[in-house]
Queue: 4 jobs
Job 1
Amino acid sequence: MKSIFPSIGMERLRMGTDGEGITTLVCAAGCPLRCAYCLNPQSSTEKKPPVYIFTPESLYEKVKIDALYFLATGGGVTFGGGEPLCYSGFITEFARIAKGMRLNAETSLWVSESSLRQAAKVIDTFFVDIKDMNPSIYKAYTGRDGERVYENLKLLAGLVPSEKVVIRLPLIKGYNCDRDRDKSEERLRALGYSRFDRFDYIAK
């Protein structure tokens, strides 16, 4: 059966937000988390159905128009969401077609071990939004237990070099503080991670 990627949309010619160079962002429909300040609430298929249903071939036809931009700037395709690693099989098939095209993933890591292992074989850079390493804060903000994320962080550290992972450490108003972020970073450095993006969530 052909893999598909249900998507809420895509955006071309992005710079400085989804990886190096010029990127095309392809957003997955569906997410296992229910974050209080979700940046893409439309990704919840409970609220809105997918806009596009891509096959690996149809997505390649869409993005290949920018292949020269990717090559010239070191950019590529970034899979965001929702949670794109729920579709690791699709991403793997797409990688076979889009040979030489750089692939990034923006992920919460709230996915199965098998999905992460599969993605680690083809993703060039992971942008991991871990919310917070404190289990109480994580559950209060996402509505989910964070243990799966913490185990996947350990797994990912052993699957890819640390330079291929950027950990996003948000300051979430009403949920954590800078001291919490410092503690999260300390735990993550102990796992071998070295690239961090600290920023503030803006509640909508």
Job 2
Amino acid sequence: MTRTVNGELLFKDREKEILRKMIRQVADFCGVEVLTFCIMSNHFHVLLCVPDGAAVSDTELMRRYKVLYPKPTKYQEASVGIMQSQLQAGGDEADVIRRKLLARMGDVSEFMKAVKQRFSVWYNRSHQRYGTLWAERFKSVLVEGAGNPLQTMAAYIDLNPVRAGLVDDPKDYRFCGYAEAVAGAVEAKKGLIHVWSDHGAKRIDSALRAHRSLIFGKRASEPGLPEMTRKRALQVLDQEDGQLPKSVMLRCRVRYFTDGAILGSAEFVSGFTGAWQMDRGRKHPPKVNAMQGGDWGGLAVIQGLRRQVFG
């Protein structure tokens, strides 16, 4: 997730559409799969699947590179021609090209860097402005790539416009992965099928039913559910010592999904504690914390979030 500078509401429909196209474009170049996304007026979320590093042929390298320039200038066309010639000739120059291109692929940080830089250049030119567009480095959460963790994160992302009060049903919000899948967009359907593949969802209709059931809970057949306010959620949890259904919790702003660092089963999270500790230079290993607030189906995170989980 990444946010605009000062949280300014800069993105209208045109900007959201350009950003949507760039997310898909850069994902193709980087060789990552967009499982779902949501673009709001001052931030966007994207859930990515990063495949294991498989060999990439020179032909595929050039195809991906061309994806970044759907309407190339004469200079860009000439550059592509030179790169292709050097790759065909082999040798040191070809190796340099391969290393430079491959270094930008299969990596979340490189993906986000490319999307944010490309969109910033377009936005500033289109709006006669200059300077930074984004507030800070993006926030990321490593999510277990199957089952409840992946499905819950996908639903949380798709419910952004519902939490913001823009729609009652995410299928009515143009700029999220679920709405694109409902509308029949091929890449969005592939992403949703991937999310629900371990439930036997090989077709988009079964994936949509499963996703909708998670979003709406027992009232999945109804068009919408009232938004659970933060105040009411805290009252149920703190004062009434109760638990909220997952479909209701997902309508709250839950900091685990942006600040939890690693999300999945306790076993999955514990498997990354050593790497997380080394990466941050911590003296002591982090604890594996069960997610609080209701029945999350055994989900755990590294960041326990001592402050309020909701809001």
Job 3
Amino acid sequence: MMTVFSGNMSGIRKSSGVFFRLVRWPNLLIIILTQYLVRHCLFMPFYSNSGLQPAFPESWFALLVLSTVLIAAGGYVINDLYDQTSDRMNRSGRMTIGIHITPEAARWLYLALSLGGIIAGGALAVRVRDLAIGLIFPGIVILLWFYSSHYKRVYLLGNVVISLLSAMVIMICWVLEFYALRSDPMLFASVAPRFRNLTMLSSGYAMFAFIISMVREVIKDIEDVRGDAAAGYQTLPVVSGITPARCLAVVMTLLIMLMATGALMYFFGHDLMVLFWYFTLVILPFLIFLLIRIIRAKSRDDFHYAGNIAKVIMVAGVLSMQLFSII
């Protein structure tokens, strides 16, 4: 009896490990962290300072996060399904589909996760009284499918699409809040003049997410160039070579540094010293380090390391939202 129980528990742990690896659980945690920081560090202080309650209740915001996470998890599954050929060369030791889970089971898992995200998104559309909002969620599911099946094989298009979806993790919070506000005309009229500040903040962080995602995606394409070429992908480094791809990553990194410098000047001019020092001591040094690593990278491991630095910068940028709740 104990042997059977122990065997069942071992199987459950193994299945759970396979599932969480397949859906990229660290990336899902970053999504959850990002959206809750947008909610509690950007939006909630705005309402508190205005003496108002948010238009979007906490329980419904949790449903938005759930929808986002389910759709993203489904996106990772379908991406691995279509990437089996390139993954055999790029990351054979970390493959899941075809080794720990059958392609058929992965397809059903993708459908279940995506459908759950669409249903949760539809409920949110009903809540804000705008059914057109409900089209965003199946639209993202379809875009993720096209990305995995077609777009990521097309020159730069896949990089742009996935970077836009990274920015959408932030902007979907703004979209739902805006439409929830608009469903209450009195509340909307009272906050509309000041809501522009939230729009600027949300847009700034979304732009940051877009550009740093572009940098990371280009670096990842360089890292995976051999497997992608064997699979027939027409990525930037496959078509144009590693040097042009490296140059694009450098230019995009310099663009983020320029944005960070502009933010520093704004923070200093408006006496937002906590933010000024955070960007000076954390964000800019990491960006300089990333720039150096991209320029000096020679091997696949070097580019993998640079990609990890880009992910750290993304998390550091997201964490800076906390500072808006204390200034």
Job 4
Amino acid sequence: MNIRAYAASAAREPLSLIDFDPGELGSDEVEIDVAYCGLCHSDLSMWGNDWMQSRYPFVPGHEVVGTLAAKGESVTHLELGQKVGLGWYSRSCGVCDECLSGNHNLCSHVGQTIVGRHGGFAEKVRAQALWATPLPEALDIASAGPLFCGGITVFNPILECGVLPTDRVGVVGIGGLGHMALQFLNKWGCDVTAFSSSPEKEEAARGFGAHHYVSSRDSEAIRKLESTLDLILVTVNVELDWEAYLAALKPKGRLHIVGAAPKVECAVSTLLEKQRSISGSPLGSPATVNQMLEFCGRHGIAPKTEIMPMSEANRAFERLSSEKPAHRLVLRADFD
């Protein structure tokens, strides 16, 4: 049975309906009936072949939520009709050192949902069953999609960096990633400082859980925070006054980057003198995704979303490119 999907025939070409034959379902795979799919900046980059790894026709979409429609013969932990979600990763080898240690997201052979295969702007999408994560009943299926990309991107560092409830944490950027990071860190118990270049976002930042607000354009205000923060999470994709942010860290503090900033520059002495560090991370493992979803259900955490029909995917792309909305756009599959 063919699958209908919205695809671009070449870089930056408008999306149009196609039909494709997905082939035989693998024994360790599942097929998901797509209900909603979030739109992410990575979809824009892949659509334009900015990373030189796109294949056309290209079907975007890697923040998928839906119900399990079919499963391979070796899949025993999921049931047909079960609500599941799928993010950036769709396969891992399971036998390398990274997988065996639980770090499936660092697998050398990891497969991505929209790299070399068709993504979630479709009636159905396939993935290795390991990466189809059950959705807790407490979560709204319409808004949960962005958790599987943006959400896990900012939740994973909380575990990887060993963040404690007593820590003071800064979040740079309070857009699509940052507004979820503020919620996570607040409910984790941290004292949270939001850094943003938009003064009009202060009220929203405090609503998402920030206890303090600092303009990211005011280097002097940042420097007044010298040696006060245990962690600074950078969610933006621009270069910053790195020395000012590093100086705001306590001894042994960490600057952790999840936004695709072009480069980071600082004096080595800034790191050596106070034993500060710089790190980064991709999305999380299936186990971490499970933990994040449980945490969201327990504390009522959800991304701020706007729902649009998937048939208006081109307009959604235009909005994400030009308007840069602070919330997440989510497309509702409307093929019927």
